Amino acid sequence: MAKYLFEVKYTLQGLQGLLAEGGSNRLVAATAAADGLGGEVESLYFAFGGPDIYAIIDMPDAETMAAYAMRITAAGGVTATTVPLLTATQVDAAVAKHVGYRPPGG
């Protein structure tokens, strides 16, 4: 499975929902949504000073993660940024690939 960092920022509507329902209910909702797509919420932390939530989510593929992110943000309670995460082995494989690129002026 692929790992993603899911950074979430509450909208006013979402913050009002959080205040009414609490953080545990949001964790349950995020986990149920991921489970329903064959994924898993590995960890979820609430924060302040930037994004309101940082979650590490495992999903079968990028399309499934996109579906998760689109449905959650379309509900209107949050805005979100999805960051694909790579293991050291994946970076090694990327470094080993030949890229035929010529820089400007090169």
Can you describe this structure?
The chain is an alpha+beta fold and 106 residues long. It has one domain: Alpha-Beta Plaits (2-Layer Sandwich). 43% of the residues lie in helices and 29% in strands. It contains 4 helices and 4 strands; from the N terminus they run E-H-H-E-E-H-E-H. It has helices at 12-21, 23-36, 62-74, 88-96, and strands at 2-10, 40-46, 53-59, 78-85. The protein has a 4-stranded antiparallel sheet. A hairpin with a 6-residue loop joins strand 2 (40-46) and strand 3 (53-59). The longest helix is centred in the first third of the chain and has 14 residues, at 23-36. The radius of gyration is 17 Å and the shape is elongated. The chain starts with a strand and ends in a 10-residue tail after the last helix. The model has no long low-confidence stretch (mean pLDDT 97).
Return the CATH topology: Alpha-Beta Plaits
Helix fraction, binned, reads 40-55%
> Whole-number average pLDDT?
97
Q: What is the structural class? A: alpha+beta
Rounded Rg: 17 Å
The CATH homologous superfamily is termed ACT domain
Strand order of the largest sheet: 2-3-1-4
Question: What's the total number of strands?
Answer: 4
**Morphology call:** elongated
Q: Which CATH architecture? A: 2-Layer Sandwich
**Tell me, what is the CATH class?**
Alpha Beta
Number of contiguous helices:
4
Order of helices and strands: EHHEEHEH
Reconstruct the topology from this structure.
Layout: E1 2-10, H1 12-21, H2 23-36, E2 40-46, E3 53-59, H3 62-74, E4 78-85, H4 88-96
Antiparallel strand pairs: 1-3, 1-4, 2-3
